[in-house]
Design a protein that fits this description.
Blueprint (H helix, E strand, L loop, with lengths): L1 H20 L1 H36 L7 E4 L10 H4 L7 H10 L3 E10 L2 E5 L2 E11 L3 H4 L4 E4 L4 H6 L3 E4 L1 H8 L8 E4 L2 E9 L16 E5 H8 L6 E9 L5 H16 L10 E4 H44 L1 H9 L4 H38 L7 H27 L3 H7 L2
Parallel strand pairs: 4-9, 6-8
Antiparallel strand pairs: 1-10, 1-11, 2-4, 2-10, 3-4, 5-8, 6-9, 7-8
């Protein structure tokens, strides 16, 4: 053990000496490792941060929530031309399923629609996420309020012109004044503000609303002005199963009831999609995995170049210290001692390059977190991975130079240095 500690100490001293005496050459050689480690860890840190954010945003939603619509949330074997012929779900179908389904906690109706502007006197907020829903939405999404309330069933059914504003929207329009009971203008008409959602923070994913930049109002209003078959809106029936319900059994029940209602013939495929959030999270996991693989493939080329650079500098180092190797061997140094000496030196040089790459990732992550208001996290796992990769590159690229150094004949080595 003492021998290896002494080897490590001497190798570190040799590595530092190489850095001091051949700064430009050594730094150019380390650049490949630095760029390679930086590329891999930067990609992994960014993907992990995105994954963490998406999972946090989805954590407030029940992953068993079912979205019944004419569109698929994920990959499907149904061809596009076929999907375009699927009819939209209707309000009447929502009412039928609400009354007839078993093991369901709540069912609501929603229109996915384009964003709009909201005005209040001289102030205007653009690109507001418009959430047109029935009154059950508040329970399906477990919404919380800083002020006021959500609209009730009577207001929902009549399409009364009331609106619940997201926290940021209310703040932008009313500053610190109480917005409850005040009116805002959207879709060219006046709406009374009856509630403000509790501040939630920026969301990386928005399924069905609930963030601070949304406005919630009765879907019956939108149905009244757009009708049931307008391309500007996509109707969706949202079904929240009871806790412990058999999801596959519920999916089968939904499919059978809607097929019967629509008169779909036996043997024909469903002309609708029963989407589950759990399937969406699986798709996101697959996407995240693909991004990681792509990052690895691209970054490995940088690591390959870095490995060649380290191997090159180690061969040069062996050449420059041939005389010293001969003296060490003539004084009794074993081949193993010489081998580990150069191997440790290669590993230490690569680890230094890797640490520089990790430091750059950390600095850039701090800057981007401040500028973009998105938390980029350089986790301990990625730090350990980066350091381990650097050490592995040093081991692989240093093995041949170390072996060649350990096999030098001491007499020839001393003579070549004279």
């Amino acid at each position: 053990m003492l021998l290896y500690l002494r080897l490590l100490k001497e190798s570190f001293a040799f590595a530092m000496n190489a850095l001091r005496n051949n700064k430009l050459r050594t730094m150019l050689s380390l650049l490949g490792v630095t760029i390679g480690i930086f590329s891999i860890i930067a990609v992994l840190a960014a993907v992990d941060s995105l994954d963490r954010k998406i999972k946090a945003d989805l954590s407030t939603l029940d992953k068993n929530t079912i979205y019944l619509t004419s569109q698929s949330f994920g990959p499907t074997t149904v061809p596009r031309w076929k999907r375009e012929q699927f009819p939209n779900v209707t309000y009447e179908e929502y009412q039928y399923l609400k009354e007839s389904l078993n093991n369901v906690e709540n069912t609501c109706f929603q229109y996915f629609t384009s964003s709009q502007s909201i005005k209040q006197d001289a102030k205007t907020v653009s690109s507001v996420n418009m959430i047109a829903v029935t009154s059950e939405f508040v329970d399906v999404q477990r919404m919380e309020f800083s002020e006021g309330r959500f609209f009730n069933e009577a207001e929902s059914n009549s399409g009364k012109q009331v609106v619940v504003l997201g926290y940021d929207i209310a703040k932008s329009l009313f500053d610190d004044f109480d917005p409850i009971g005040k009116t805002v203008r959207m879709y060219g008409q006046q709406f009374t503000v009856i509630g403000v959602t509790k501040k939630k923070g920026e969301s990386g994913i928005d399924i069905g609303g609930g963030d601070d930049t949304s406005a919630f109002f009765p879907s019956a209003f939108l149905r009244r002005i757009y009708g049931d078959n307008n391309p500007q809106v996509l109707p969706v029936i949202i079904i929240k199963p009871q806790r412990g319900a058999d999801i596959e059994e519920l999916k089968g029940e939904i499919s059978q009831k809607l097929r019967n209602l629509r008169g779909v013939k036996q043997g024909d495929i469903d002309n609708f999609f029963v989407n589950i959030l759990a399937g969406l999270t699986d798709m996101i996991d697959n996407l995240i995995g693909s991004l990681k693989v792509g990052g690895w493939i691209i970054s490995l080329f940088s690591l390959l170049v870095g490995g060649f650079g380290i191997a090159n500098i180690m061969f040069v180092s062996v050449k420059e210290r041939t005389n010293l190797i001969g003296i060490q061997k003539s004084l009794g140094a074993k081949n193993k001692f010489i081998l580990f000496q150069f191997l440790f030196e290669a590993i230490i040089l690569c680890v230094i390059g890797g640490l520089i790459g990790l430091f750059l990732v950390w600095v850039i992550a701090l800057i981007l977190t401040q500028v973009l208001s998105f938390e980029f996290v350089l986790g301990v796992g990625n730090i350990m991975l980066g350091t381990g990769l650097a050490a592995a590159i040093g081991l692989i690229s240093g093995i041949l130079p170390a072996v060649s150094a350990s096999r030098l004949d001491p007499v020839e080595a001393i003579r070549s240095g004279m």
